[in-house]
Specification:
Blueprint: H1 8-15, E1 23-25, E2 38-41, E3 53-60, E4 64-72, E5 75-82, E6 87-91, H2 104-107
Antiparallel strand pairs: 1-6, 2-3, 2-6, 3-4, 4-5
Length: 108
């Protein structure tokens, strides 16, 4: 991965790994976000850029998501955002997922 999980791009890279495939694009008609999913945003922060923000879905409302996020005015907050506004996609980690640590020696 190109950075740590402190950066949204690392979550995207990890979720898209061939052994994971946990990423679902926002335009995927067969995916519906649910509680516990990560939501990845584009162009939410300033200056706006791709995959610049992430949150955890707490509740799915009609056309909105209630999401726990960090960096909302430099603090953590629970916010309600439009379900389709600025959403790049979602990451869903399966309940049966088992983390297997890879050391730097194994990456090369």
């Amino acid at each position: 991965m190109s950075c740590t999980f402190g950066g949204v791009v690392a979550w995207l890279q990890w979720a898209k790994l061939p052994g994971n495939r946990f990423y679902f694009a926002a335009r995927n008609p067969r995916f519906a976000p649910d509680r516990g999913d990560l939501v990845v945003y584009d162009r939410v922060l300033h200056p706006p850029c791709q995959h610049d923000h992430i949150g955890i879905v707490l509740e799915v409302l009609d056309g909105n998501l209630r999401v726990a996020e960090g960096n909302v005015g430099n603090v953590s907050a629970v916010v309600t955002r439009e379900r389709n506004s600025h959403v790049r996609g979602h990451i869903r980690i399966p309940n049966d997922y088992v983390y297997c640590e890879i050391t730097r020696d194994q990456e090369d």
